[in-house]
Amino acid sequence: MKTHIAASAFAVLTSAAFAQDVSETIPDAVSKVSPALSAYTTDTIIGNEWTNEAMSPRDRALVTFAALMTRHETENLDSYVTLALDAGVTPAELSETITHLAFYTGLGNATAAAQAAAPVFDARGVTPDSLPGAEVEFLPLNQEAEDAREELVSGLYSDVSIGVVDNTREILFRDLWLRPDLEPRDRSLVTVAALIAAGQPEQMTFHLNRAMDNGLTQEEAGAMLSHLAFYAGWPKVFSAMPVAKEVFESRAE
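The structure corresponding to this sequence follows.
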């Protein structure tokens, strides 16, 4: 069902109207100061990358928002909030993405992203009581996977910082990751995007494997790397490429 929805959304969102939405994320100053960059943006990024069917516009918008939030690029972030909403990301999903990435990119980045999103939410009539609160009915816990993760982390680091070990277990994997208003696949998607954008590929192995366990395909993961090259920079993506290659090869065995 999700595949059908994504395909239908792509047919709608690669229209001229959506291309215009993406174009509106680019400030007028770009064409005034760097005509060459303006041309690359229009022809390559908007005209080619955003319309590549290897990843849906909805996922591209969510990944881009996650990357820019991670990089604290907040000056124009409201336009990407608008883009994500127009691409089919729900207000609840954006709210949960901000909450989730607070733990992976830092509270300051999440606070700044909330400040950028607030005027857009206000303009669209999105109220706090329509968004996920602190108390939710958690998704089921994969006990076997959690036990394996806990054994590894506890075994390695309980004598370094028991606080980190305990909070990782209780706040992240028995709370945050079980919140239902952002699908596990999408939590993994924004987490991997954030790790790439932050230049932390050493953390990717676990999370990319988890993303693929949660339904992200290898084609989509490869498309995410290609997309993020434009928003996080080629060096960060090339630092992530060996990790992705290793994960893909290990899963093919």
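The mean pLDDT is 93.
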